[in-house]
Specification:
Length: 288
Amino acid sequence: MSNFYDKKLLLLKPQRIMLPLFSAKTSFDINALKPLADSIAAHGIIEPLVVRKNDFKRYELVCGHKRLKAAITVGLRRVPCVLVSADELTASLMATAENLNRKSPDYFEQAEEFKRISIRFGIEYETIAEKTGIPISALLNRINLLNLSGEVRQKLSGLDESYALTVSLVPQEKQIDFINRITSLSLSPEKAKEAVKDYVFPSLFEKPEAQKETAPLRKSVSCDVRIFSNSLLKLISTLKNSGIEAYSSAVEKEDCIEYTVKIPKSKPGARTQAGAQKHINPICSFVP
C-alpha cells in the first residue's frame, strides 16, 4: 500500500475485489467491452478503480466495473485501485455520480439505480440529487421514464433522453406509433416536441364516439331559458318590493322567445295623468 496525495493506492489482484451485493448492472456485452479491453492490454489501466473495505473486511468495488471486467478479460494480474472510506450508501452514491459523468449513459439504468438507492436506504430523491450533483427536476424526469413499457424502452434504445422524455408525454397506446414517426422522419428533439401536440391534445379534448353526447341541443337550451326566466322573475319581484310597479311578459315566436319588461318612469302618485301613460318598454329577446 502506498499513499499519494492523501489517497491510499493499492495494486490488487482482480480476484480479491468483490462486486457490491446490490448493484445496478452486473453484466456487460463482450463486444462493447472489446475496445476498452484492447486499450488496457496495450496501455494498462490509466484511471484506477475505486474500492472500499466492506463489513466483511473485504475489498468491494465502488467504481470501475467495466475496467475490472476488461482487465479480467485480458488476464491482467493486478489492477490499480484507490481505497476510500465509505459506507454502503456513500459507495452507491459515488458509483451513481461517476456513471452520470460517463459519455452517453443509459438513462433507464440510471433511473433504476436512483429508485433502488431510494428504496434500499429509505432516502428521498432530493437527497440523492444533492449528493450526486444532478438537478432534482432532471432526476424526477428520469424516474418518470420508468413508467414506460419494456417495448417502448426497447424502441427508444439508441435515442437521446430528450426523445424519451417527449414520448412519456404521449398516451401509452400511441407511444410506439409516435416513436416510429420520430425515427421514420428523422425528427430533431425540437421537432419531436412540436409533433407531440398531435398525439396529446386530441386525447385531452376529444371523447370516444361511444361517449360523445347525442342529446338534442334543445334540452340544454330549455334549461338556459328556464334559468333566464327565473332570474327575470326575481328581478321583477325585487323591483315591486321596492315600490316600483314593474312587470314582464313573454311571447314565444318561431325563432325566439321575446320578453317585455315595463318599468314606470316615476313612482305612483308623483306622476301626472300624461306622465302616467308614458312607460319605458325595453324589450329583451332570448334566441335559443
